[in-house]
């Protein structure tokens, strides 16, 4: 371990930039651009002409799995080290060391770029009557910044997020009552119920729209809420595989058709909500605190921009928050001593079960929020963060060319003992300053919502929703895990790979 620590310390170097013209750089003692080792010398699986390393993902002959990229990343780290080269159709670099991850993100480009959602970008640009752009998730450059800088004001400011606490708590309180009335069994997968909850929350907060997801008629597969949830998953589930493929560019493959059909349904729902809102209000509604109400007041957005953002919100919010909440409940329910500490904190904040939650209570739920942080360390939203280099850079003595896709492997790195003590144990105290178990974890080790201006626009809102959900559920129930050990399916976002099997035992306190 000592030798390994020294090796890691020697690798803690910052990135240097290399312009397209000859200039000197300093990276691990290399002073000339010409002396940097070429990208092709970075360790990685053997690459062949035309197919590159795509054969590694092929059925039967390959040992990589597109829906188990966490395991693929672990294999790569064990075989090749902290920098790994791949070329599955594009040039890819996997980065594991948090110091190298920090170096990558300390780029000075104004508009961080990434290569993802390329099929969705293609789909939207081919519908100019519906969309102005490929949307916030898939657009790069100044057009991305126009959208981001306008939309983020009401998403990211702490005060605007606090304004949604009461509405969110009302919806989650209804959900808790529904669980009690329905007598939910551990034999039922709890994840679909969380999907319905988060559709309801985001509908209320973002659009001032109730989907009534738990009404009996909405349980039907052909109902609006059921089809919205299916369309969100249909959009998210194929994006990573479409990013790696090319046949969809030539003809409509089944996977691309699923994406297109899913996007089209979300468009239909968003258009109906948007047109009803625009036609209903002849003037600004001062009482409308929804995100949509804010969007419609922005001068540099038109209805096509707003529609694209509404589709992005539904696509991103339902699954992402549901999966993250599932993993939180999984870890807390498997650690009774942690759950007891959570309950003790919540009981002090909510003397009775019907005490209303406000922003002050959320801010004081420190241990609950440390549980969320720890769960996101072990089970982040995705395996890591993607960037597309917009100039040549030098990293660890290698020349990383412009146009390289960099993937930071935070999920694997967060589970390595050289960066975290007892990394596989669920220990919320490691995030609590003043705790004897507090750890000064590298700030770039766990990045569940990304980094910088390209980070998740709804991060604060998602964390607040998860926090209120945990507060309400654990105040009402003693929760026990009844299933097998939970892993992930690495779609665009990490999905539980098994049913979320929970037993809810009512508390008498």
From TrEMBL:
Q: Which domain of life is it from?
A: Eukaryota
Q: Which cofactors are required for activity?
A: heme
Residues crossing the lipid bilayer are none
Which GO molecular function, any one, fits this protein according to its record? heme binding
Could you list this entry's UniProt keywords, alphabetically sorted. Answer: Heme, Iron, Metal-binding, Monooxygenase, Oxidoreductase
Q: Which sites bind heme?
A: 456
Q: Does the keyword tRNA processing apply?
A: no
Tell me its family. Belongs to the cytochrome P450 family.
Can you say what this protein is called?
Uncharacterized protein
| Organism of provenance | Mythimna separata
């Amino acid at each position: 371990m000592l030798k390994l620590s020294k090796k890691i310390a020697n690798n803690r170097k910052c990135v240097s930039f290399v312009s397209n013209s000859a200039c000197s750089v300093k990276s691990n003692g290399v002073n000339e651009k010409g002396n940097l080792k070429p990208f092709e010398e970075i360790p990685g699986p053997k690459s062949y002409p035309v197919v590159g390393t795509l054969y590694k993902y092929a059925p039967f002959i390959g040992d990589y799995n597109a829906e188990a990229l966490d395991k693929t990343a672990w294999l790569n780290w064990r075989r090749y080290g902290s920098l790994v080269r791949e070329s599955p159709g594009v040039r890819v670099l996997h980065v594991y060391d948090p110091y190298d991850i920090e170096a990558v993100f300390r780029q000075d480009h104004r508009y961080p770029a990434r290569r993802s959602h390329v099929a969705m970008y293609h789909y939207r640009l081919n519908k100019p009557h519906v969309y102005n752009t490929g949307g916030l998730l898939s657009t790069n450059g100044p057009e991305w910044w126009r959208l981001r800088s306008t939309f983020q004001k009401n998403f990211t400011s702490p005060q605007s997020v606090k304004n949604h606490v009461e509405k969110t708590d009302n919806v989650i309180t209804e959900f808790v009552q529904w669980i009690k009335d329905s007598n939910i069994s551990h034999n039922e997968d709890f994840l679909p119920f969380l999907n319905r909850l988060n559709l309801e929350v985001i509908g209320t907060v973002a659009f001032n729209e109730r989907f009534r997801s738990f009404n009996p008629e909405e349980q039907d597969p052909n109902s609006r809420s059921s089809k919205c949830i299916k369309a969100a998953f249909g959009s998210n589930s194929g994006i990573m595989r479409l990013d790696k493929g090319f046949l969809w560019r030539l003809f409509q493959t089944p996977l691309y058709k699923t994406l297109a059909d899913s996007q089209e349904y979300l468009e239909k729902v968003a258009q109906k909500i948007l047109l009803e809102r625009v036609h209903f209000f002849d003037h600004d509604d001062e009482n409308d605190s929804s995100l949509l109400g804010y969007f419609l007041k922005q001068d540099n957005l038109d209805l096509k921009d707003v529609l694209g953002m509404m589709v992005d919100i539904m696509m991103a919010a339902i699954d992402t928050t549901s999966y993250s909440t599932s993993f939180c409940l999984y870890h807390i329910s498997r650690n009774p001593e942690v759950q007891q500490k959570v309950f003790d904190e919540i009981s002090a904040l909510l003397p009775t079960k019907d005490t209303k939650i406000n922003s002050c209570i959320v801010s004081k739920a420190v241990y609950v929020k440390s549980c969320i942080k720890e769960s996101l360390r072990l089970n982040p939203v995705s395996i890591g963060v993607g960037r597309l280099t917009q100039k040549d850079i030098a990293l660890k003595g290698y020349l990383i060319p412009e146009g390289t896709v960099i993937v930071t492997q935070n999920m694997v790195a967060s589970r390595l003992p050289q960066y975290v003590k007892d990394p596989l144990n669920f220990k919320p105290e490691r995030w609590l300053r003043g705790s004897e178990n507090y750890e000064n974890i590298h700030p770039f080790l766990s990045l569940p919502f990304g980094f910088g201006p390209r980070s998740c626009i709804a991060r604060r809102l998602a964390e607040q929703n998860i926090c209120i959900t945990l507060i309400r559920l654990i105040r009402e129930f003693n929760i026990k895990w009844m299933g097998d050990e939970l892993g992930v399916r690495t779609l665009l976002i990490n999905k539980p790979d098994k049913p979320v099997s929970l037993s809810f035992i009512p508390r008498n306190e």
